[in-house]
Design brief:
Strand content: 25-35%
Number of strands: 47
Largest sheet: 6 strands, mixed
CATH superfamily of one domain: Transferase(Phosphotransferase) domain 1
């Protein structure tokens, strides 16, 4: 064993510097050409000039992972100013290890812009662990990147107090960001900081105690060591090995310290991408609340944790938008003119309304509180108050809080049990017209100009009136001959109205069939424009009144939805007897080809797809202005794009509910094997039918098999829902993913997902969770209680 450990021990020792490929005095690098970097012996890491994303003429002096596609930066040179900034140089700059042993970065004019503390070295070397070292003649380290970290630490790196990691401002901008990891003798702390001053607000995560070092050891474990010998884990533990994975831990721009791994070998089982294996804090949206500053996201926005990739998502309330889409930390602005204090109360009540949001809160923006008070009075008090931008009503305590802009520390979570009321204008057009009217009253010149325009255009107005009358007569006659063409404007939708000829040409005469369903056939096509966008055209092939109604429902349902996990409707055709819908084309097709095929889809992608479908259903059930029950959730109706983002399709069987309805009665819809038990009973149908179908799909994603396999060798495995329930009760969920190494490696998550599926499959629909609760359980935002043991699940055999 000793001889096997020797190479690794040598790698970690200072003396091992001499065993590396030394960079001799007089060596140099330039940003362009073959001599732009120095590689480690294995080629895993490089040190040199790294082009800045989106800017081909600017370069960082950096260390990066050299063998992966995105060349992830692990270190970059910074200035030593009170507020350090990344050192950026242009083409024509150079880096030299001079004959005198000084490493010097010079701009095109020959002016030195950076050097590592004027160290004099005998040679330099780029180590295979990602550490760039300036060494003395005896091999001792004079300067190293490991001792001068930026936002990332690497395997075998050890930090001693005082040291800091500073996040970037955004992923593609290496300027000092809004968060700081501070390693001090009395502990490790995560702070939000004010940009650009660097002022530290209160910490949002910490481990206090007498600290001697922060260690990222060779097994992938990150821990904090104290002077009494105790070790406190900062991340969850050992993940992979140096042989099979690249490792890094980064203080990301959203303030979360994440540990990542990247598989070195390409295989069908492992995705070639960085995967999060541990993070602190677990939910920064809830952990970070500051009395001063905006919080995790910018002012007037709110934060939610995306469980697909464990990244923070910042969002704006209704009728608000980001000040800068790329730099969302700058916050959101209202897309309307806020209520003027010159308006009297009656005018304010006419012009503004309060829209409702749930599970969102801005906890520190209150300026007035009322209790006890009913919700309708809370609404009126906010509408009448020109300072009030948001009212929050807590039903349990009958308490009303008024908040004014800017809103801070916004977060979304299932534990926020309050109704949030956002003040927005009733009609933007009417508000702007009222604003213009007020200007005219204040400025007599507007009246003079307005009068002149009215008198001068009277003849034109008369001509327009005559034209309208003639056109109206023509349209009336035309309607009697040809059914009306419903345009996107009178449907209130941002859709394109295609002609039948356009779609016939785009599909080459409807030749290539992508699939078929209960309401029609889907064809592949390509728009004949400069972009040549690929499309999927659904042709409704029935002409009965039922089909006409179905077409109208589908256009209205899909056209008013917009979510990354729903297939987007681009346009429609309603010409004569032809009814067609034009969708975005999904190159990867439907989900069933990935989970029922010969090659098993990677576990992390199956998790991503499950979360995507859950979020899409959550949007349909709770976030649309009109609730939509899909009624036919199955793998064939879940499409997958190039990034393996799941998108729910085919709303032809959707049942719309008005906001004051809770259930609907209808004939049996959906596909056998996925339909909920209540379809077979004379009971009302609710959104819980989709929850049941999602439970079946979740099990199919976990196990990569169909719910019903009549030809299965073992009787108890023929119905997946039965088998999964039995395995869960016996504590053997590993049997469900037998032979799936990735899933076995993540067995705790497998067990969690199975539990969620069993909750969804409860026979009593009232026992099933909502899709909001399902999403929270899958994301890890809330605990998952043990699901009740249903004696049987209703059989839905083909």
């Amino acid at each position: 064993m000793a001889h096997l450990l020797l190479p690794f021990l040598l790698l970690l020792s200072t003396a091992s510097v001499q065993a590396q490929q030394n960079i001799t005095l007089g060596s140099s690098l330039t940003p362009q050409g073959p001599s732009s970097s120095w590689l480690s012996p294995s080629g895993d890491f490089a040190f040199g000039f790294r082009p800045i994303e989106g800017n081909t003429s600017s370069y960082l002096l950096a260390v990066w992972f050299n063998k992966i596609s995105d060349k992830t930066v692990a270190w970059y040179a910074k200035t030593s100013d009170p507020e350090p900034a990344p050192v950026q140089v242009s083409s024509g700059s150079s880096l030299r290890l001079t004959s005198g042993g000084v490493l010097s970065l010079q701009d095109p004019t020959g002016t030195e812009v950076w050097n590592p503390q004027s160290v004099v070295a005998a040679y330099a070397t780029m180590l295979d662990v990602g550490n760039f070292v300036l060494a003395a003649a005896d091999g001792s380290t004079k300067w190293e990147t490991f001792n001068n970290p930026t936002d990332t630490i690497l395997l075998t790196q050890v930090l001693t107090p005082p040291k800091m990691l500073r996040s970037r401002i955004i992923a593609t901008d290496y300027s000092s960001g809004r968060f700081l990891l501070n390693l001090q003798n009395n502990g490790v702390f995560l702070y939000p900081v004010a940009v650009p001053s660097g002022y530290q607000y209160d910490s949002y995560w910490s481990v206090a105690g007498n600290t001697t070092k922060l260690v990222f050891d060779a097994t992938g474990r990150i821990y904090i060591a104290s002077d009494n010998g105790t070790q406190i884990n900062m991340t969850s533990g050992v993940i992979g090995s140096m042989t099979d994975y690249y490792h890094r831990a980064t203080l990301d721009p959203d303030g979360v310290f994440r540990q990542y791994v990247y598989p070195k070998k390409v295989s069908n089982q492992w995705s070639q991408a960085w995967s999060v294996v541990s993070m602190e804090p677990q939910n920064i949206c809830e952990a970070l609340v500051t009395k001063v500053g905006s919080g995790t996201c910018g002012f007037n926005s709110y934060c939610t944790l995306d469980g697909t990739n464990n990244q923070t998502t910042c969002m704006c309330p209704e009728q608000y938008s980001f000040i800068d889409e790329e730099r969302k930390y700058k916050g959101c602005k209202p897309d309307f003119r806020p209520q003027s204090c010159d308006l009297d109360e009656a005018a304010a009540m006419m012009q503004f309304q309060l829209t409702t949001m749930y599970h969102v809160n801005w906890p520190l923006a209150d300026y007035e509180q009322y209790t006890p008070i009913p919700e309708n009075q809370c609404r009126q008090l906010c509408l009448k108050d020109c300072f009030c931008a948001v009212a929050v009503f807590h039903v349990g305590s009958s308490t009303c809080y008024k908040k004014k802009l800017p809103l801070s520390n916004g977060n979304m979570g299932g534990d926020v049990q309050a109704t949030v009321l956002i003040k927005v204008p009733k009609n933007n057009n009417s508000q702007s017209q009222l604003s213009e009217s007020s200007k005219w009253k204040k400025d007599k010149k507007h009246w003079i100009i307005g009068s002149s325009l009215i008198l001068g255009s009277s003849v034109l107005v008369n001509l327009l009136l005559i034209s309208v009358l003639l056109f109206g007569t023509y349209c009336t006659i035309t309607r009697r001959i040809v059914p009306s063409l419903q345009s996107s404007s009178n449907l209130g939708l941002p859709l394109k109205a295609f002609t039948y000829a356009e779609l016939e040409k785009a599909t080459s005469g409807f030749q290539e069939v992508l699939g078929s369903g209960a309401s029609g056939i889907v064809y592949k096509g390509q728009l004949q424009d400069e972009l040549g966008i690929c499309i999927a055209v659904k042709k409704i092939d029935k002409l009965e009144q039922e089909s006409e109604n179905e077409f109208t429902v589908e256009v209205q349902a899909i056209g008013r939805t917009h979510h990354k996990n729903l297939v987007r409707l681009l346009g429609f055709c309603n010409e004569g007897k032809e009814r067609l819908l034009v969708y975005e084309f999904m190159t990867n097709g439907s989900l069933n080809r990935f989970i029922f095929g010969d090659v098993r889809l990677q576990w992390n992608l199956r998790v991503q797809i499950a979360l995507g479908v859950a979020r899409g259903l959550l949007y349909l059930h709770e976030e649309c202005s009109t609730q939509i029950i899909h009624c036919d959730i199955k793998p064939q109706n879940i499409l997958v794009d190039d990034n393996f983002t799941a998108k729910i399709s085919d709303f032809g069987l959707a049942k719309l509910l008005r906001t004051n309805q809770t259930q609907t009665n209808t004939g049996i819809r959906g596909t056998r094997g996925y339909v909920a038990p209540e379809w077979f009973k004379s009971t009302g149908i609710t959104a819980k039918v989709d929850v049941y179908s999602f439970g079946v799909i979740l099990l199919e994603l976990i196990c990569c098999r169909r719910n019903v396999e009549v030809e299965a060798a073992e009787e108890d495995k023929k119905i997946l829902t039965y088998w999964a329930n039995d395995c869960y009760r016996c504590g053997r969920v590993d049997l469900l993913v037998e032979g799936d190494d990735e899933a076995i490696f993540n067995l705790k998550k497998v067990e969690k997902f199975v539990a969620v599926a069993l909750w969804c499959l409860q026979e009593d629909p009232t026992m099933r969770p909502t899709m909001l609760k399902v999403t929270q359980m899958l994301d890890g935002a809330c605990s998952i209680p043990t699901p009740p043991d249903s004696s049987s699940f209703v059989r839905s055999l083909p």
